[in-house]
């Protein structure tokens, strides 16, 4: 332990973004005036318009959370059988498939992008496959060109879990325009939040009508129900939070970018890997994952950084097909398991100071030097 790198206060992997208290108070005044708390209210619709613009998409619908949004997307596409997805994700992705009565089929990942490997997808397609559900893990865009070609060729639907990719663009296109539908999580721990919340973005307006009804019990009018729906509406207080946080989003992402570069320059001479972005990608710097040489060192660093008051997270460990509820699936994803064993996410949020980043990096480098992995 090198005492000079100890923080007085705990530093967590993320910190929820809150607007100024007065700014939020001002935003929610209209709720008292209109007495409109939820159900397609004016703040929700204002937020939909602004998010359509910001995300550079044609259509959007908002939901109580990202997970419900993903389940609704799967239901609205009338999928059956099997969906090919990645085990290197938050378990929500896989639960959404399973909760719709569909079998998740785990596909291995690319060891550099950490995203689903398109060459492996092809090998897993069977007559039962109805869709592919890739995740833009840590906000790194999947290889959409190759994946969409596979989907087209085999007549499969393509749903993206873009929970980490709020605001990401590829070649100037909003990442939410990819595939049949994309899901963004607007949870407190993500780059942009509405406290809890989720969004679906898509190009087909008719699909919008379907997902709108899904989140409102399948009602098509006060006296008619079209199908078995659910309740997954975003309320006006969440929308107000979203409107406030959207005002600072560019500044928040700029801060994250500075943090990303500060980490990279501190850690570039150390024998660990971190993610990089292609030149055609406008990134959101949602996470700062590093890959350590092996599980033993990863676990040791995780433990030892806590002595400095630094609380990192093992995202995503264990990988989903190592969880009890998904274990029956034949295990065919050695790269995902290896990455899960070596990954560690360092603190990353817009309010993290560059001084703190340097101190975290110094503590990490010091602890690594104690394990003899420095080059
Ligand atoms: C956060 C997250 C979700 C779920 O989103 P919620 O808004 O928390 O329901 C789904 N997939 C991934 C990859 C996530 O990180």
Top keywords for this entry?
375 residues; alpha/beta; 12 helices; 17 strands; binds pyridoxal-5'-phosphate
Task: Describe what this molecule looks like in 3D.
The protein is an alpha/beta fold and 375 residues long. Helix content is 38%, strand content 15%. It has 12 helices and 17 strands. The protein has helices at residues 21-34, 42-55, 66-76, 92-99, 118-124, 144-153, 205-214, 236-247, 249-267, 295-306, 334-342, 354-370; strands spanning 11-12, 59-63, 82-85, 103-106, 129-133, 157-161, 169-170, 173-174, 181-185, 198-202, 219-221, 224-225, 273-274, 281-282, 288-291, 310-311, 343-346. The strands form 5 sheets. A 7-stranded mixed beta sheet has the order 2-10-9-6-5-3-4, with helices on both faces. α1 packs antiparallel against α8, α2 runs parallel beside α8 and α3 (66-76) runs parallel beside α4 (92-99). The longest helix is centred in the C-terminal third of the chain and has 19 residues, at 249-267. The radius of gyration is 21 Å and the shape is globular. The protein starts with 10 loop residues before the first strand and ends in a 5-residue tail after the last helix. The model has no long low-confidence stretch (mean pLDDT 96). Bound molecules: pyridoxal-5'-phosphate. Pyridoxal-5'-phosphate (PLP) is lined by residues 65-67, 89-90, 92-93, 135, 161, 163-164, 185, 187, 198.
């Amino acid at each position: 332990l090198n005492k000079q790198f100890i923080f007085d206060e705990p530093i967590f992997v993320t910190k929820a973004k809150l607007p100024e208290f007065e700014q939020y108070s001002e935003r929610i005044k209209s709720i008292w005036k209109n007495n409109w708390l939820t159900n397609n209210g004016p703040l929700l619709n204002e937020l939909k318009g602004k998010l359509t613009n910001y995300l550079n998409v044609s259509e959007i619908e908002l939901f109580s959370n990202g997970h419900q949004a993903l389940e609704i997307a799967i239901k609205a596409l009338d999928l059956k059988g099997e969906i090919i997805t990645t085990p290197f994700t938050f378990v929500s992705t896989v639960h959404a498939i399973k909760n719709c009565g569909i079998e998740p089929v785990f596909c291995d990942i690319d060891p550099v992008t950490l995203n689903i490997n398109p060459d492996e997808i092809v090998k897993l397609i069977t007559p039962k496959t109805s869709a592919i559900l890739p995740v833009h893990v840590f906000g790194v865009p999947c290889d959409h060109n190759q994946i969409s070609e596979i989907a087209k060729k085999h007549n499969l639907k393509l749903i993206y879990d873009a929970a980490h990719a709020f605001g990401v663009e590829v070649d100037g296109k909003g990442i939410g325009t990819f595939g049949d539908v994309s899901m963004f999580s607007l949870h407190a721990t993500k780059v942009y939040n509405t406290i809890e919340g989720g969004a679906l973005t898509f190009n087909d307006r008719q699909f919008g009508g379907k997902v709108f009804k899904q989140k409102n019990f399948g009602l098509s009018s006060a006296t008619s129900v079209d199908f078995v729906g659910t309740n997954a509406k975003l309320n006006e207080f969440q929308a107000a939070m979203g409107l406030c946080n959207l005002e600072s989003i560019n500044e928040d992402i700029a801060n994250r970018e500075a943090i990303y570069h500060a980490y990279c320059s501190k850690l570039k001479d150390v024998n660990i890997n971190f993610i990089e972005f292609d030149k055609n990608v406008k990134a959101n710097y949602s996470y700062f994952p590093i890959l350590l040489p092996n599980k033993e060192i990863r676990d040791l660093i995780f433990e030892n950084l806590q002595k400095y008051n630094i609380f990192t997270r093992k995202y995503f460990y264990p990988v989903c097909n190592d969880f009890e509820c998904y274990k029956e699936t034949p295990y065919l994803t050695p790269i995902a398991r290896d990455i899960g064993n070596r990954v560690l996410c360092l603190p990353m949020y817009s309010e993290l100071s560059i001084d703190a980043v340097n101190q975290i990096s110094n503590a990490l480098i010091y602890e690594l030097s104690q394990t003899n992995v420095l080059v």
